[in-house]
Amino acid sequence: MGLNDHQSEWKRFSKSFLFAWNGIIRTVKHERNFQIHLFISLIILLSGSILSLSRIEWIILLFLIGGMLSLELMNTALERAVDLITKDYHPLAKAAKDAAAGAVLVYALLSVIIGLIIFIPKLI
After folding, report:
1. Which tens digits make up the pLDDT trace of 8-46?
2. In sequence order, what are the residues at sequence separation of 6 or more whose Cβ sits closer than 8 angstroms to the Cβ of residue 107?
3. Is 57 a catalytic residue?
4. Which one of 53, 100, 117, 120 is CB 3.0 to 4.6 Å from 78, fit for a cystine?
5. Predicted TM-score of the model (pTM)
6. What is the DSSP letter of 93?
């Protein structure tokens, strides 16, 4: 492999980060649900700082927040892909979008339950 091949690989690799960042920024700007999740995440991070969480509690919360935001990004991607394929109502398109939204809801509920388990004892 020559020097130009390595430079080309590095350029493609670095561009992939730019594309990912652009996807996150676009989602932050245009998706209300993502904005809500981001706002709640900031409140949780602030609350965790105030309540002096343990290292393991921080790790759990960061995984929950990262998972939630990642799942919301995937939900948005799936919705956009379905919309690209058809603007018309189709039962399979609806089923795909509903299932992706359902996955977000399941994870959000799990996150709330775990968050309550972590925060309630700190508040009592």
Report:
1. 888 888 899 999 999 999 999 999 999 999 999 999 999
2. 67, 68, 71
3. no
4. 100
5. 0.87
6. H
